[in-house]
Amino acid sequence: MKKEKIFADIFVRLNSVNLYDYWVKVEQELRENNGVFSVHTDECRNSVIVAYDPEIVSSDALLEIIRDSYVNADKVAKTLLRVNDL
């Protein structure tokens, strides 16, 4: 029996004057969340990409974690990928 797995990515643009001060906190908060597979920050573009399981955590919840870290953030894009086990 095939089992479907769902993976999602969220791309978030971060808007903060002192963003560097918050990178570590934002990454740590996201990585500690159940359902998050990986967190990739891009300091040159002031952005973060989070790979997560949408059945465990929502993109809105992840965005709230980022905003709770004193960073203004805007969700730019979200992708969803379904994969079947063989």
Structure description:
The chain has helices spanning 23-31, 59-68, and strands at residues 4-15, 36-42, 47-52, 72-84. Strand 2 (36-42) and strand 3 form a beta hairpin. The model has no long low-confidence stretch (mean pLDDT 76). The radius of gyration is 14 Å and the shape is globular. The protein has 86 residues and is α+β, with helices and mostly antiparallel strands. The protein has a 4-stranded antiparallel β-sheet. The protein has a single domain (4-84), classed as Alpha-Beta Plaits. The relative contact order is 0.36.
Task: Give a quick summary of the entry.
The chain is of the alpha+beta class and 86 residues long. Helix content is 22%, strand content 44%. It is globular, with a radius of gyration of 14 Å.
How much helicity do the residues have? 10-25%
Instruction: Count the DSSP helices.
Output: 2
Gross morphology is globular
Helix and strand element order: EHEEHE
Report mean pLDDT, rounded to a whole number. Answer: 76
Number of domains: 1
Stretches with pLDDT under 50, minimum 5 residues? none
CA-CA gap between termini: 8 Å
The CATH class is identified as Alpha Beta
The gyration radius over C-alpha positions equals: 14 Å
Major sheet: arrangement of strands: 2-3-1-4
Topology:
Elements: E1 4-15, H1 23-31, E2 36-42, E3 47-52, H2 59-68, E4 72-84
Antiparallel strand pairs: 1-3, 1-4, 2-3
Keywords:
44% strand; Alpha-Beta Plaits; alpha+beta; four-stranded antiparallel sheet; 22% helix
